[in-house]
Every structure is written in structure tokens, then in C-alpha cells.
Write a structure and sequence with these properties.
By secondary structure, the protein is mainly alpha-helical. The chain has nine helices and four strands; from the N terminus they run αααββααββαααα. The chain has a two-stranded antiparallel sheet with strand order 1-2. α4 crosses α7, α6 runs antiparallel to α7 and α8 packs across α9.
Length: 234
């Protein structure tokens, strides 16, 4: 997925980037004249734009769509990871939307305090090195992901969820999972890597270790317990 090239000021910047960097692959041309449709008082389908947009994968995807005859624009944000359990996904959502709410209400927008290049590097460093990464944050400098979350982002997420009138019990439950995940330095991907390594150390070849890890992963996922509580032993 493409992260982008700069901070933007409008959703139209995203559409312009799509045209600039991703040539159309499917030469389908629609007969609709969007200006004629607009003049008639209706919303154009913009089928060519929608087809082209559907071939592009980026972290923040702009979408033009029509539902029940009503056109709308939206941004599909793809930062929330899947699994490994429902409660983990709920915790991820609470953490993201709470911190996002807090950032949106700050006096100075985040992009005025941090360069786009720093955000871009944060994304790739976190993806490559997980808890071993060093991330930049305004007013903090370079810090590990668990320290950044515990000291700065979790308090922001609590504040944001309070502003959204989320109950104290829900906040503590879901953000508590994020806190414990940082304290244990355990995520779904780290559990997978650790489990494969343990199985290989017991003499299994790579394929058998991967199969064994997946079998245990499914079992733990179906238990519904958050990933930070999963046992390290296999």
C-alpha cells in the first residue's frame, strides 16, 4: 500500500495523486457525459474514476460513490489491523479513534509539528522492527513504540474517548488491552514469530513449524482471549 508523498489539505489531493502516479490499467470508457448529467440535476456515476480508483491500494483511499441516488465522498482509512481476536480488534479501534479524536482537537495540527518524512519513516520502521523500532514524535523525539504509546498516546486516547462520551468501563477495558500489550511487548505478529522459532528449536522444519504455529494461532483466536495473554510455550 502507498503511504503518499506529502501532507494534504483536501480529499481532491488524493484523487490527483492517483492520476499522477497510477496510470489506468483497464481501457474501459463510459458513455456518460458527467457535465450533462449535472446540468440535468442528477449525480454523475463517474464510472471511469471509480474503476480506476478501485485498482489502487493506499493507506488512505479517497472514494466517490452513490448510495440511493445520493453522491458522497469518503476516505477509507486502512490502518486498523485485523485480529487476532475480536477483543483485540475492538481495542485497536478504541485506541485509534480515541487518539485521533484528541489529535483533531489540539490547538496545533500534528502536521504542523512533524514532517511528512518523519511520519513516513515511522510507518516503515514500525512495520519492519515492531517494538524494536525507534519512532519520532513531536516534543518527545525518538522513542520506542511501547514507550510512545504508554507515555503519550494512551492518555490521548482516553481523553478522546471521554470527549466521545465512551463510558469509563469501556475505556478501561479496551485501552487496558493496549496497555498490557505494550507492557508484555506482545502482538499477534510477535507471537507468530516467537512460536515458529520455538517449534523450529524443537526440531521441526520450517513448513511444519508454520503449520504448527497456525494451528495454535487458530485455537487461541477462537478462545477470544487477547493476544497479550497467549502463552509463549508451545
Amino acid at each position: 500500500m502507498w503511504f503518499g508523498e506529502r501532507w494534504i489539505t483536501s480529499i481532491f489531493d488524493l484523487f490527483e495523486e492517483n492520476v499522477r502516479y497510477f496510470p489506468g490499467l483497464l481501457p474501459e470508457i463510459d458513455d456518460e457525459d458527467p457535465f450533462e448529467v449535472l446540468d440535468s440535476g442528477r449525480a454523475p456515476q463517474l464510472s471511469e474514476l471509480r474503476l480506476h480508483n478501485g485498482t489502487i491500494w493506499r493507506w488512505n483511499r479517497p472514494v466517490y460513490d452513490i448510495v440511493d441516488g445520493v453522491p458522497h465522498l469518503r476516505v477509507e482509512n486502512r490502518v486498523l489491523p485485523a485480529g487476532p481476536t475480536v477483543v483485540d480488534m475492538m481495542a485497536n479501534a478504541a485506541f485509534f479513534y480515541g487518539s485521533q479524536r484528541a489529535l483533531a482537537t489540539e490547538d496545533r495540527p500534528l502536521w504542523t509539528k512533524m514532517s511528512f518524512e518523519a511520519a513516513h519513516e515511522n510507518l516503515h520502521a514500525g512495520a519492519r522492527h515492531a517494538f524494536g523500532a525507534q519512532l519520532y514524535w513531536p516534543g518527545v523525539g525518538w522513542v520506542s513504540p511501547d514507550e510512545l504509546v504508554l507515555r503519550r498516546l494512551l492518555p490521548m486516547a482516553h481523553e478522546g474517548l471521554r470527549d466521545c462520551q465512551v463510558s469509563d468501563a469501556a475505556r478501561e477495558r479496551y485501552l487496558g488491552i493496549i496497555e498490557e500489550r505494550c507492557l508484555s511487548r506482545r502482538t499477534g505478529s510477535s507471537w507468530q514469530r516467537d512460536t515458529v522459532a520455538l517449534l523450529e528449536n524443537r526440531g521441526l522444519d520450517r513448513d511444519a513449524a508454520l503449520v504448527g504455529m497456525l494451528r495454535r494461532y487458530i485455537e487461541h483466536s477462537e478462545s477470544g482471549h487477547p493476544v497479550h495473554t497467549w502463552p509463549r510455550s508451545v
